[in-house]
């Protein structure tokens, strides 16, 4: 003997939600491409990676040192330039003062 079950609107909504969730899970669990096997690095590869990293860090340190040296050279150049400009202004002023004074009569 069969019995009839009447589903309410809420029951129908829950069934639709369950079916939608199942189909989403099925779609997500089927990857488009097969998973790539994890590649384990050999000790030699790890050593090579470390060597490359060490070289990169050394190059970066050299570049930073060069930048610091260049900044120091620019600072010294600017300082010397200011010093010479002040000296030149002083000499210009002295020359201007000398030109305004009358020459002694001989």
TrEMBL record:
Region Disordered, residue ranges: 60-81
Domain of life of the organism encoding this protein: Eukaryota
Ranges of Basic and acidic residues composition bias in the record: 72-81
This protein's name: Leucine zipper transcription factor-like protein 1
Species whose genome carries this gene: Eutreptiella gymnastica
């Amino acid at each position: 003997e069969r019995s009839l079950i009447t589903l309410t609107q809420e029951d129908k909504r829950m069934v639709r939600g369950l079916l939608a969730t199942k189909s989403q899970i099925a779609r997500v669990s089927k990857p488009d491409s097969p998973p790539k096997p994890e590649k384990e690095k050999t000790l030699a590869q790890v050593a090579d990676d470390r060597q490359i990293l060490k070289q990169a860090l050394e190059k970066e340190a050299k570049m930073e040192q060069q930048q610091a040296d260049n900044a120091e050279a620019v600072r010294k150049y600017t300082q010397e330039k200011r010093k010479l400009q002040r000296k030149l202004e002083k000499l210009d002023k002295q020359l201007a003062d000398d030109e305004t004074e009358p020459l002694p009569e001989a």
